[in-house]
Amino acid sequence: MRAAALALAAALALAAHAERADRDKEIVVNADKLTADDANRTSVFEGNVVITQGTMRMTANRVTVREDPLRHKFYVAYGAPVTFRQKRDNVDEYVEGYAQRAEFDDLNDIVKLYENARVKSNQNEITGNFISYDVNRELAQVTGAPPGTAPPPNSRIKMTIIPAKKEEAGKPGAAPGKAGAAPQEAAPPVALKPDAGPGTR
What pLDDT, on a 0 to 100 scale, did the predictor assign at position 167? Predict the structure, then answer.
């Protein structure tokens, strides 16, 4: 059904660097109810909505899809929270996202996460009440509140970055015995002088 395919693009857009092979996989949507209003170009999926495609999986309580006369789509997902998970491209890592509400505008390719928003990749994580990501410009914005609204008192954003482990192999000064470390030259023997004290002949 065309309406089902439209709803899934919102989830796919949430991972700009996600597994590319997923785009060619079968799209599956499950929900308790679907209301398709062709006259108003609106489709609503309700009740335990689960969307999957390849490694991508999104869950929500409700997903609404609107289409304008030029067939641009605007998606809104509601949950407690909305969850998203998908494998990143070319690495054995997953991107995870959480928010009370998620929106995607496929005209401008912008993803927005509202209320207790959190995006996590490996052990790196960023949280805020509002996270916006411009897919085309690869520009992220994280604030204590959506634009045009006052943030709650003491509202802060938080980013956690786990430093990558440095590879010691093959680097100058690497400890002996490590793979790729250059062999160290043997130190010259120490020349011992005879004791000049009493009893020395």
Answer: 62
Residue 125 lies in a domain: yes
Which domain covers residue 63, as residue numbers? 2-160
Residue 55 lies in a domain: yes
Residue 68 sits in a domain whose CATH number is 2.60.450.10
The answer to whether 31 touches 76, Cβ cutoff 8 Å, is no
Is 81 contained in some domain?
yes
> What residues of the chain score a pLDDT lower than 70?
1-23, 138, 166-201
Contacts 24+ apart (CB under 8 A), 30-39: 31/63, 34/3, 34/4, 36/1, 36/3
3-state secondary structure 152-195: CCCCCCEEECCCCCCCCCCCCCCCCCCCCCCCCCCCCCCCCCCC
pLDDT of residue 19: 53
C-alpha to C-alpha distance for 42 and 146, rounded to whole angstroms: 25
How many domains does one find in the chain? 1
41-55 in b/e form (b: 16+ CB < 10 A) is bebbbbeebebbbbb
pLDDT of residue 189: 53
125-145 pLDDT tens trace: 888 899 888 777 767 788 888
